[in-house]
Amino acid sequence: MRSVRARTALGATLVVALALVVAGVALLSVLRGNLADQAGLRADVTARSVASQIASGTPFGELDLPDDTEEHPVQVVDDDGRVVAVGEDIEAIEGTGSGRTKALPARPEEGDGGTGEVSGEVAYSTGDVTVDGDTATYRFAAVEASGPRGAEATVYAGAPLAGQTVSGVRDAMLAALPGLLLVVAGVTWLVTRRALKPVEGIRREMAAITASEDLSRRVPEPGTGDEVARLARTTNETLAALEASVDRQRRFVADASHELRSPIASLRTQLEVGAAHPELLDLDGAVADTVRLQRLAADLLLLARLDAGERPGQGRVDLAALVREEIAQRSGDRVPVTVDAEGVAEVGGSRGQLARVLGNLLDNAQRHAATGVTVTVRGGARAVVLSVQDDGAGVPEAERERVFERFVRLDDARSRDEGGAGLGLAIARDIAVRHGGTLTVRRSPSGGALFELRLPSS
């Protein structure tokens, strides 16, 4: 059963059927109990009426028993277990003091003619009685009584349990159950069909998007505000994110191809010239193009690994010590670098990737600084902040997010060799995000750019 509607309708029907069965059993049990209580009350009244006659001195053979034996069968049993009075036309009786249906002669009473008594206690039992060939179930009340002359007897009086009433209710419930279940199944089927109609629309649109590969399309969003509407909204958000990712990937491939083409073409030209005229070979230029090509390939490979979800290591890195070591190893910087990184500032992550962030920020600052670059590390209880600032022209406020996009170079006048491929800041931010931190840019006190890396403390 692959249909959600069918499974829902079947499940709802089974639940309703189970609930109706349980409720029906409980109802019949309560009804049967109430009928038994009412029958017991009627039987008690009849038994005490006959017992009052015995207590007043009426002989057993002269007791006035109810005429409607089918409604009130009575049997009187003396203290010796002998049946001394029984209702007319009773052919068989169960649940009383004796199964006999014929009264025996009463024994002579003895005593001084005192006062008779009817017991205040009553005992109940259930049994079948056959009257004029008809058998029914009765609720019996047993009441003890004693006559003025000491005669003692137990009066058993019955009242029908109205089994036909219980059977009628049960039969009516069983007859109505199939129709009610059909109604429940039909209503559930229709309601589920109406509720799932938007889902089918979403499925058709997703199938069309898959077939056409047009990620600009969106699924219809119903205005119900329920789970289906939220599903459609989430689906459209996923499609938008997927479209943006595919567009970003396409731009990345196009930009990477464009960036790779220049050094490869330059290197090929130099090698072809060198092959034809060895004396004209620009060996330094060929080496520079090769290094640039190698760096670009390394950047592209790192971005590919980051896009694939590569997570940083779980090591502990002293960011202050890392800054001091990395700057001590740099040579050939255009302007001097001032370091303010004392003490210990530990963060969690990959030392190599964090060193790459620092290197990219320093390279960017060196390209734009006028007279110097300042690196500051400040450790805190919750975060460690690394700042790299220069005294160059700074980054315009409108471009402060765009500089972190891939292959973006704000200064078009710079040559590609001097300005790089525009991947350094993009790589730095990706690494910062994957370390649980942030990388932002703002204006420095000296008027240039201040890049701030904020990472959670370890």
In words, what does this structure look like?
Helix content is 48%, strand content 19%. With 458 residues, it is an alpha+beta fold. Strands 1, 2, 3, 4, 5, 6 and 7 form a seven-stranded antiparallel β-sheet that branches. A hairpin with a 5-residue loop joins β6 and β7 (152-160). The protein is rod-shaped and about 155 Å long.
Distance between the termini: 54 Å
Total domains = 3
- Annotation field: number of helices: 8
Instruction: Provide the helix percentage.
Output: 40-55%
Radius of gyration: 51 Å
Overall pLDDT metric: 85
Shape: rod-shaped
Q: Write the element-wise H/E pattern from the N-terminal end onward.
A: HEEEEEEEHHHEHEEHEEHHEE
Strand content: 15-25%
Sum this structure up briefly.
The chain has eight helices and 14 strands. By secondary structure, it is α+β, with helices and mostly antiparallel strands. The strands form three sheets. Strands 1, 2, 3, 4, 5, 6 and 7 form a seven-stranded antiparallel sheet that branches. The protein has a five-stranded mixed sheet with strand order 9-11-12-14-13. Strands 8-10 form a two-stranded antiparallel sheet.
